[in-house]
Amino acid sequence: MKKIKVGIIGMGFIGVSHIEAVRRIGSIELAAVTDVNLDLARKKANEYGIPKCHGSIEELLSDEEITAVHNCTPTNLHTSINEAVIRSGKHIFSEKPLAMDSRESEHLLDVLAENPGVVHGMNFVYRMNPLVQDMKNKVAEGLIGQPRLVHGSYLQDWLLYDTDYNWRIEPEMGGASRCIADIGSHWMDCVQTVTGARISEVCADLVIVHPIRKKPTGQVETFSLNKAAEYEEKEVRTEDYGAVMFKMDNGIHGVFHASEVSAGRKCFLNFEIDGSEASVYWNQETADSMWMGYKDKDNLMIMRNPLLMSKDAQKYTYLAAGHPEGWNDAMKNNLHSFYSYISEGKKQGVDPCDFATFEDGHYIVKLTEAILESSKTKRWIKVK
């Protein structure tokens, strides 16, 4: 089978994660990279043995060998780059959030409608963990009864101190929401995936813990420790924490909170689905196991075991039980699903897909805007 040649735009933390995942999929060849910091792009190309390092996005898009492009740039560049990729006729896999606002994300859907042959996917990676897929099947098969409640959190500590800084803090680059758009979006996508329903109404409280942060005068990488001696004080206009009550379009009620200032929590994404007969719970930091709870019999702690998982979930797992699979494996699953879809000649709008699409990303952007409006007006807001 002829390999699909791929280009990646953006060589920051997440861009390198895409490189690592792409290299694990035999049907894909990483052909080129580019970054606004060309020295960084050259360094990564040399480090990973990538044949080409293009000097610009335009140069990469004009490369006829490349079939698909990964957009791993800051949020403020997503719309322009995604549109350019789509109009070039190449398939697009984008980081989230899809755009700065729903006006931009809706525009991307319009551009896709004009280019129906382009396959589009998004990196809502956690939905592709094998046990999340197993949970989805358990819920669909009625093994917890009728789903009634959903609750959980996504907690991190990488912005705990007022000396911690990143481009995501600035709304001009990251958008009007930070914590909810950055990590809360993953939580919402997981819950919508597992329940097969959409969050349709929200009531939120967003909090800026550090009204002023100290921005280093030099560049700081995501998740790094900031010990810069020179800095400038910057007003913070995006939330460090958010709590959201919600209703889903199938009658489920829920609540979650997200934080980037919770000391000791690194990537604590967890959620529980409470049904009429049982509950099921999963935590990303212990991704190789899930919990099922019952009223009238012993609770279960279930280790991922390919031999015992639902048939549909087995295609997402590769290692024998006791050999932990985690974030990198979910990332690989996401890209493998995206590129298998392309290789098999499937068409969106006709053939179903399990990876997140731009339609999913657009809805998450609208959800985020509803959460922002709810926090501002102090009332329940229906997603438009």
How would you sum up this structure in a few lines?
By secondary structure, the chain is α/β, with parallel strands linked by helices. It is 31% helix and 24% strand.
Topology readout:
Elements: E1 4-9, H1 13-22, E2 28-34, H2 38-48, E3 52-53, H3 57-61, E4 68-71, H4 78-87, E5 91-94, H5 102-114, E6 120-122, H6 130-140, E7 147-155, H7 171-174, H8 179-195, E8 199-207, E9 212-216, E10 231-235, E11 241-248, E12 253-259, E13 268-275, E14 279-283, E15 289-293, E16 300-303, H9 327-343, H10 358-377, E17 381-382
Parallel strand pairs: 1-2, 1-4, 2-3, 4-5, 5-6, 7-12
Antiparallel strand pairs: 7-13, 8-11, 8-17, 9-10, 11-12, 13-14, 14-15, 15-16
Helix pairs in contact: 1-9, 4-5, 5-10, 6-8, 8-10
Provide tags for this entry:
single chain; 384 residues; alpha/beta; Dihydrodipicolinate Reductase, domain 2; 2 domains; 9-stranded mixed β-sheet; 10 helices; globular
Describe the structure.
This protein is of the alpha/beta class and 384 residues long. It folds into 2 domains: 122 residues, NAD(P)-binding Rossmann-like Domain (Rossmann fold); 216 residues, 2-Layer Sandwich (Dihydrodipicolinate Reductase, domain 2). Helices cover 31% and strands 24% of the residues. The protein is built from 10 helices and 17 strands. The protein has a 9-stranded mixed sheet with strand order 16-15-14-13-7-12-11-8-17. Strands 3-2-1-4-5-6 form a 6-stranded parallel sheet, with helices on both faces. Strand 1, helix 1 and strand 2 form a beta-alpha-beta unit. Helix 1 crosses helix 9, helix 6 packs across helix 8 and helix 8 packs across helix 10. The longest helix is centred in the C-terminal third of the chain and has 20 residues. The radius of gyration is 21 Å and the shape is globular. It starts with a strand and ends with a strand.
